[in-house]
Amino acid sequence: MTERVLSILIVVLTLGAIGAALGPACLRRWLSVLIPALDPRRFVCRVLVFEEETAAGCRDVLKIQIQGAIRAPHPNCDTDLLIQLTDATDKGTVKPVLCRRTEWTSDGTPAHQYHFHNGLLPARVSVLKDWVTVAEIGVWELVFPRRGPAVLECEVTVLDQTAGKALACARSQVSLLSEHFGYEEIQQQRLAKQNAMRQMASAVWQMTAPNPGGKELLDRWLQERKLPAAEPAVGTVEQAAALAREACEQLAGYADPADGYAVLEICMRIAACGESISQPLLRELQTLAANLEIPKDRWEALVQKYLSRQAEHIQDPMLLLGLHERMTEAQILEKLTSEYRKWNTRVTHPDPAVRRQADQMLNLIAQCRSRFARQASGSSRG
Predict the structure, then answer these.
(1) What distances in angstroms separate CA 240 from CA 9, 174, 205, one per listed residue?
(2) How far is it, in rounded angstroms, from Cα 164 to Cα 143?
């Protein structure tokens, strides 16, 4: 043991003597070879976060800077810079950071990889004594895997443009706060939304079963969206209605208006394929529309478009005209007059299907007027 310590001491003293004889510069070079981190000229990068005033207010901007020595194979070597950003929040797992700016992406993918021309290096060893900013990008332009605190890792590589060989490379990390939903969360929400839409449409079909026409329509709609086919109808109508309401609650949280309207429309089309439209089914569809925040005029338009042909099979046809018990006499008369004007203009439509629908709706309006007149006459005699 003593001999080993003595040998190490002799080596250290020998290196010290050689360094003293050759000068401190030579000693620094030898140490930098043995321990690169001690080289004051080593190539390094860093990411600084600055607050910048924009049209949308104060926002954080990243400045990527480099410093140190770049060793080239020959003078006047033409070079490129490659900047790669990754998410290192989870230790041991590296995930891509996406970018909304097209020039900061590569190979047509949104993954952040910025490759651009850097210029000529005048000597075989070029040293950047001061920090040089090579790129800037707004934090709001980056999309992380998830929202919340994140660790951004930046890797800057200097490349020989001709040979594509790396001449220098450095990494740096910075802690950030991602304020927007990450792409993993967006993907999870998209899948949850699609499953909820599938469940809701399938549940409405089960409420109308047996309904082969509705089943064919549902399967085609699911196939267009690359979703699994609907399962066979099981359980009671009440259980299917509960599944529809559950799916509607999931959709109401994050589905946009277009998604809500699309799934309600397919539900109406499926219902229209059934042999009859019960009042509970129509009420259930109306509840789903309200939970999805479908505007009243759009709900009425869907009802008249798809269910008016089933007017004779609807237990309460007044719903086709947007009438309900809570309306006053004046409101009912005003609504019937408005509907008559709308449908009366369509009896001469060039499309035969539109003319037939207009005739059906006008007959329904006449029936509702007669029904309302009888009710008014009976109440006046009473």
Answers:
(1) 84, 51, 9
(2) 29
pLDDT in tens, 299-332: 888 887 787 666 555 656 676 777 776 777 788 7
Report residue 110's pLDDT band, with 50, 70 and 90 as the boundaries: low
Say if CB 134 and CB 66 are below 8 A apart: yes
Q: 87 forms bridges with which residues in the sheet? A: 95, 152
Average pLDDT over residues 163-185: 91
Question: Is the Cβ–Cβ distance between 52 and 61 less than 8 Å?
Answer: yes
Residue 151 amino acid letter = V
Residue 376 pairs in a beta bridge with none
Q: Is the dihedral of CA 261, 271, 309, 351 positive or negative?
A: positive
Instruction: Look up the pTM and report it.
Output: 0.64
pLDDT in tens, 219-250: 999 999 888 887 776 678 888 889 889 998 88
* Site of tokens 């954080």: 60
**Residue 170 to residue 45: CA distance in whole angstroms:** 6
- According to DSSP, the β-strands at 125-138 and 57-71 are antiparallel
CB environment 310-339: b (16+ within 10 A), e (fewer): bbeebeebbbbbbbeeeeeeeebeebbeeb
**Interatomic CA distance for residues 104 and 137, integer angstroms:** 9
Looking at this protein, which amino acid is placed at residue 136?
Answer: E
176: Cβ contacts below 8 Å, ≥ 6 apart: 49, 60, 139, 149, 150, 151, 152
Question: Using CA atoms, how far apart are residues 188 and 26, in angstroms rounded to an integer?
Answer: 58
Number of neighbouring beta carbons within 10 Å of residue 357 = 20
Residue 75 has φ and ψ, to the nearest 5°, of -60, 155
